[in-house]
Amino acid sequence: MICINGENLKLNDVVKVARYREKVALDDEARIKVKKSRETIEKLLRTGKVIYGVNTGFGALVNKRISKEDLLALQRNIVLSHSAGVGKALEEEIVRAIMLLRANSLAKGFSGVRVEVIEKLLEFLNEDITPYVPEMGSVGASGDLAPLSHIALSLIGEGYVLCEDGRVQTKEVLKHKGIKPIVLEEKEGLSLVNGTQAMTAILALVVHDAKNLMKVATLISAISIDALLGSSQPFDPRIHMVRPYNGQKKIAEFLFNCLEKSEIRNSHRGCSKVQDAYSLRTIPQVYGAVLDTLDYAEKILEIEMNSATDNPLVFDEDVISGGNFHGEPIALVCDYLAIALTDMGNMIERRIDRLVNPLVNADLPPFLAEGKEGLNSGYMLWQYTAAAICNENKVLSHPASSDTIPTSALQEDHVSMGMNAARKLKRIFENLITLVAIEAMLASVAIRKRRPLKSCDEVEIMVDRINSVLGKGSDRFVLDEFERVRDIIISEIKKI
Fold first, then answer.
1. Is 245 assigned a catalytic role?
2. Distance CA 407, CA 74 (A)
3. Considering the entire predicted model, what is its pTM?
4. What is the mean pLDDT of the chain?
5. CA distances from 199 to 111, 140, 309, 372, 460 (A)
């Protein structure tokens, strides 16, 4: 059971709830803060004070006063009208992460909602009810309005929820489970739809998985280095002590300790080659920079996941309008990380080329082909595939946050485009997994050519695991084999 209070949610907590369905509860002290915040809203309403989004219209309609008898309709209407998302549905784990993050933000006690609103979000999570949320429609300010509205839509018994066959009407599922939809009161519709949780949820899952991918990708790079008779000298700790980036030191330490124990490495220590290509010897500098970027992203995430990001916010007796819904911090990090992962993929493609290219690895069979030379093309086309993937990543890495299109009749005249940045990042990351899997397949085939010499234990365990799903012999259709290799990589990145 994970207990939320709006203050200390961690990346692993998000993964446990989103992916592995860990139960969630609201902290008792957080309940007190939430109730106090709600009391302030109700007290101010009794005085007739004008409060944005409570007794006024939204966005450019801010100057339109709403009568007392229409206040609840106002909150229902914002949910209905703002559920304007289009495109395919967000994956279940992303939607679950959004719901957890929204509940945690409301639990801080600055949003003026009732405890029942948070409890309804948690009830949906704990009962495994996942709203149907189209992926497109958010400009990232005022937060992720459209995605969050589709979630709120389900809370009030409207819209759809995900099912095995696609989607089903929410009201049918709630009736089957004996769950009552919530009736929103003043400010609660606005508080549910106004926040950065959709872009933050995607970034959180990518960062978690990418940190795990870094571990396996570094190990795969060690297989390539050994298969290509690369040197361990560039990973000597003395080099990295004089440029002491944390990521660089970690990657270099792993590669040095790994390859120094390799029989293959020891077999060519006295060779005449002076230096390896950059794609071998600068792995710590490139992968280390990516790792540092991921660490920075995690720090930003832990701030954002535990922030109040709706508007207005309640402080003691004051209700203050501001802009914490603006997704710029997350948008910039998504774009930054997209560039980092894209360049990591560029380096992987260069090693893939070196594994099959007879111009640079004359002691390996051209294209790692077996059988008659010329009759068999081996793994030639897998470098083409890697090149195509890298090209797509380069296109996707153009920063979404460098654009802004005014919305709401120029009232909301600068937006973050953070959701698009997050969606692009996710696609780049999925492509990177494929690139790592291609390198893993080719490197494991190539290192067979070094037998009977062996690499270090860590490499040999992974090589045996990969080769166990690969066939041998002349040209054949290997897509099924590749997909099994990719599944091995995915099994590593899904670990908590």
1. no
2. 20
3. 0.97
4. 96
5. 20, 8, 12, 52, 39
